[in-house]
Design brief:
Elements (H helix, E strand, L loop, with lengths): L1 H25 L18 E6 L4 E7 L4 E3 L11 E8 L3 E9 L13 E17 L4 E8 L9 E2 L4 H4 E9 L2 E2 L2 E5 L3 H12 L4 H10 L3 E7 L4 E6 L7 E8 L2 E7 L6 E8 L4 H5 L8 E5 L4 E7 L2 H5 L4 E11 L2 H4 L9 E7 L5 E2 L11 E5 L4 E5 L1 H9 L12 E4 L13 E5 L7 E8 L1
Antiparallel strand pairs: 1-26, 2-18, 3-8, 4-5, 4-13, 5-12, 5-16, 6-11, 6-13, 6-14, 7-9, 7-12, 10-11, 14-15, 17-25, 18-24, 19-23, 19-26, 20-21, 20-22, 20-24, 22-23
């Protein structure tokens, strides 16, 4: 009996081994035939590829984006961009920001005198150009900015720029930008106003005096630079050093409790200026640029035919869009490592893709070997397919590729990229799905 059981066990083990090897070898088959010997003809797995001619594209203006909103949280972006940069592809880009400070209402003593007032700004990296090709102009705000108000990237600087209180060449040292406030009258008035705060009434009066800073870079020379800064780092602060009698004291003021608003301006020249004039979705080369610059609108022309195959379960859907390496040239090292997808309404407005369960995150990562961005559209296509049987209808609307996140400025990007939709391009949408 034991010998019989042993033989049965050995036979069972041999059968399982053979079956495992067969399954493993079947993986070497053409993807179109994967599992075709195991499933009925109507239920086999199919790999579907759309060629570049079925994905149409053009360059469109990005439009203003929200850079501060209490609805998204008091601070929606950790980083800010500073710069004034000139480029042969993307023209001139200016990036400034507004900020107000939390106030220290400590006792400043009798008759304090200012020793120095210095603004420190931590930076994460200097992405484009040489940071020493900038100088920083700081203006006293003449209009109030509120943490409870929504602000956009195209706000008018002239509404907020008051009198200049400092102008310095940008110098970096150990990750810190140090700017001396050179207006002595402003420094003295600031200390006097701080020392006068005794109650809530005097504090409200102080806020009408000091509303914050408008921080605006200016290019030195032809190129300039764009710098990513981190105002929420502990080393980013305004430091007031004052003398009271024989003692010297310091007070730190931080930007982590106030409003911070990014302000962007673009002056595009050819080729982007010409690309934006093309209204039809038949461009061979398109552009994506950060800081609310330009975007690429795409239409997946053959998607309706695929959706007609439902009911279907989508296993994988990759949209691959190559870059134009010839146009980008030496800028390949600084192109965005991520791009993002939004949807486009019939009137041309961009909106976050949403399926009734919160905003979806559709990101395209750059593949340096393929020289292309790869987007995962599986969830998006599945929702469109499912909507044929649901009250929640998801249209096959055009999509738009942006560089700096969604409706809010959440993913700062200082660079841009040219995308290749030419007839010889390898643009494609690969969909792997199983019919139910």
């Amino acid at each position: 009996m034991n010998k019989l059981n042993n033989r049965l066990i050995q036979a069972l083990f041999f059968s399982i081994s053979v079956l495992s090897i067969s399954i493993f070898l079947s993986c070497e088959k053409d993807p179109d035939q994967l599992g075709s010997d195991l499933l009925p003809i109507d239920d086999n797995f199919v790999l579907k590829s759309d060629t570049a001619s079925l994905i149409l594209a053009t360059t469109v203006p990005r439009g203003p984006i929200i850079t501060h909103s209490f609805d998204y949280g008091a601070v929606i972006n950790k980083l800010n961009i500073l710069g004034d940069f000139n480029d042969s592809i993307f023209g001139n880009t200016k990036a400034a920001f507004l900020a107000n400070f939390g106030i220290d209402t400590a006792n400043y003593g009798n008759s304090p005198k200012v020793d120095s007032l210095i603004f420190y700004l931590h930076y994460d990296n200097a992405t484009l150009g040489s940071p020493n090709n900038l100088k920083i102009n700081i203006y006293k705000l003449k209009d109030t900015i509120s943490i409870y108000t929504t602000y956009y990237s195209n706000l008018s600087p002239e509404r907020y720029k008051g009198s200049p209180i400092s102008s310095n060449t940008l110098k970096f040292s150990n990750g810190i930008l140090k700017i001396q406030i050179t207006d002595q009258q402003f420094s003295d008035s600031l200390l006097l106003a701080l020392a006068s705060i005794k109650d809530s009434i005097s504090y409200e009066k102080f806020k009408t005096y000091f509303k914050g800073f408008y921080i605006e870079p200016e290019a030195i020379g032809e190129s300039g630079a764009l710098v990513i800064s981190d105002p929420l780092d502990d080393s980013s602060k305004m430091v007031l050093t004052y003398i009271n009698g024989l003692d010297t004291s310091k007070r730190n003021f931080y930007m982590n409790k106030g409003a911070r608003i990014s302000n962007f301006a673009h002056n595009y020249t050819a080729p982007i200026e010409s690309a934006v004039q093309i209204k039809e979705l038949d461009s061979k080369i398109t552009y994506v640029h950060g800081m609310a610059g330009v975007a690429t609108q795409i239409h997946i022309q053959d998607l309706e035919r695929f959706i007609d195959l439902v009911p279907v379960s989508i296993n994988k859907a990759e949209l691959l869009i190559p870059i134009d390496t010839l146009i980008m040239g030496t800028w390949l090292k600084v192109i965005p490592q991520q791009l993002f997808l939004m949807a486009v309404s019939d009137d041309g407005k961009f909106y976050d893709i949403e399926y009734g369960i919160g905003y979806s995150f559709i990101r395209g990562d750059y593949d340096s070997e393929k020289k292309a961005y790869v987007f995962n559209l599986a969830k998006h296509l599945q929702q469109i397919a499912n909507s044929k049987f649901s009250y929640l209808k998801v249209k096959n609307t055009d999509l738009v590729i942006v560089a700096d996140g969604y409706s809010i400025f959440k993913y700062p990007s200082v660079s841009g990229v040219a995308l290749d939709f030419s007839p010889t391009s390898k643009v494609k949408l690969n969909i792997t799905y199983s019919k139910q």
